[in-house]
Design goal:
The protein is an all-alpha fold. 77% of the residues lie in helices and 0% in strands.
Length: 101
């Protein structure tokens, strides 16, 4: 077997098992630190965090959809300012109280 094939195989193994090893180390560390009393508590906390993140992601998506709809509604009723150049944009931002970073 050539060296490059072995290197790729080892790399694939590391890629595949790395998340499992990190998860195992996190499990053990959480229990050894006394933060959790057993693996089941660690898994439950992980699932709770995953559910929380999914809810936060959904809230962000809902907010973005609402903001996009507000923009579409404003355009449909003609409530917008057309800007055609960088100079117009700068002027508009300055007049609105924006600052340049």
């Amino acid at each position: 077997m050539s060296r490059s094939i072995v290197t790729r195989a080892n790399s694939a193994r590391r890629w595949l098992f790395s998340p499992l090893l990190r998860a195992h180390c996190g499990l053990v560390a959480g229990i050894e630190s006394g933060q959790f009393s057993n693996a089941s508590e660690v898994v439950r906390e992980g699932l709770r965090l995953l559910e929380q993140r999914q809810q936060e992601d959904k809230a962000k998506i809902d907010w973005l959809r609402n903001a996009a709809q507000e923009g579409i509604d404003a355009i449909e009723r003609g409530d917008y300012t057309a800007l055609h150049s960088r100079a117009e944009i700068r002027s508009f931002v300055r007049s609105a109280g924006g600052t340049r970073r």
